[in-house]
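Homework help board

Subject: predicted structure for assignment chain

Our instructor gave us this sequence and asked us to write out the predicted structure in token form, then describe one feature. I got the tokens but I'm not sure how to describe them. Can anyone check?
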Amino acid sequence: MLRILSVEKNDLNRIIAVFNREIGRFVLFVFVLFFDSIYFSENVTSSQILINVLMLGGFLKMYFRSTPRVKESMIYAVIIGFLGEHLFSRGLDMYTYRLENVPLYVPLGHAALYGRILMFSKSSVVKKHSKSVEQIFAMVIALLSLTYLVFFKDVFGFVMTICVFLLLLKRPKDRLFFFAMYILVAILEIGGTAFGCWKWPSTAFGVFSFLPSHNPPSGISLFYFLLDVSCFYVYILINKSTWTRFKHIYRRS
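My token output:
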């Protein structure tokens, strides 16, 4: 049974409103990627610098409107995203950007994505109906992954999607956040690769021939999870006293 059908209409409208505000706005950035596309650079001009500036402006606007915790996490996300992009793209050749660089808008985009999903998943009405939202997201994820597997032979993406579900089996409190991340990352990747801003090889890492991959693979958000986990542990290391106090409060409650 679809849990979402039992959600009151008023709450459902509020959930949709929160989704549009926190997630929908970021999706608009996908269309901005057109200005870094192969078509635009070949027929108009190369405007990657303009996109970098626009992304920086969007990042700063979101940063100054966020809570202190989200602000701190966004800074960590930029740093870790910058290092991770150079490792996966430039070091391991997992994917390649159009100019064979790592555009500034990418690590900034990681941080903005992280912040948007964090605010969405922490919304009171979303938390109230978390199980219903999780179920819908899980169904969308399964359908997307199976579609990619059947029609595009995306074995690599399907395997990563299975890993996502397995990792979240015993982490029910993290499912909402990571399911939302999976969907948003999928939208971003589909747009970015369609415009030619970056591309994925036909097999995993361009090395493992037994793992055919689509461009992009469906379950690539698995690697975004590494960003989130890294941000989480960095936050704990820097805020040990706050984290210890939080754990004591949680245990007493």
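Reply (TA_rk): Your tokens look well-formed. For the description, you could write something like this. The chain has a mean pLDDT of 85. That's the kind of observation they're looking for.
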